[in-house]
């Protein structure tokens, strides 16, 4: 994503949760899930992924039925928060430190 939505929303959520936690809490560690790294045309980007999951009963060759899992990942073309199109950030990956 070419935006800062993930970072911004993670910060807002962390702030909101920290306010509600008792004084003296420790080791707060939380993140916004559903993002994955993408390598496209030499660029590196982060995309939002949604999972399509479930199961189905399919016929077995020997007769009867068996349960088959369904799991597929769908990559969003646009940021779900601000609408910016997802595309690789060409030239932003540096090996010069
Ligand atoms: Zn965004």
Written description of the protein model:
This protein is an alpha+beta fold. It has one domain (5-75). Helices cover 16% and strands 35% of the residues. It is built from one helix and three strands. Strands 1-2-3 form a three-stranded antiparallel sheet, with no helix packed on it. The longest helix is centred in the first third of the chain and has 16 residues, at 5-20. It is flat, with a radius of gyration of 20 Å. The chain starts with a helix and ends in a 22-residue tail after the last strand. Residues 90-97 have low confidence and may be disordered. Zinc ion (ZN) is lined by residues 1, 3, 5, 79, 81-82, 84. The site of zinc ion has 7 residues, from loops.
Number of helices: 1
The oligomeric state of the chains shown is: single chain
| H/E element order | HEEE
Regions with pLDDT < 50 over 5+ consecutive residues? 90-97
Q: What percent of the residues sit in helical stretches (DSSP H or I)?
A: 10-25%
Strand content: 35-45%
Radius of gyration from the alpha-carbon trace, in angstroms? 20 Å
What is the residue-mean pLDDT, rounded to a whole number? 86
The largest beta-sheet arranges its strands as 1-2-3
Total of domains = 1
Topology record:
Layout: H1 5-20, E1 35-40, E2 43-59, E3 65-75
Antiparallel strand pairs: 1-2, 2-3
Question: What structural keywords apply?
Answer:
97 residues, alpha+beta, 3 strands, 35% strand, flat
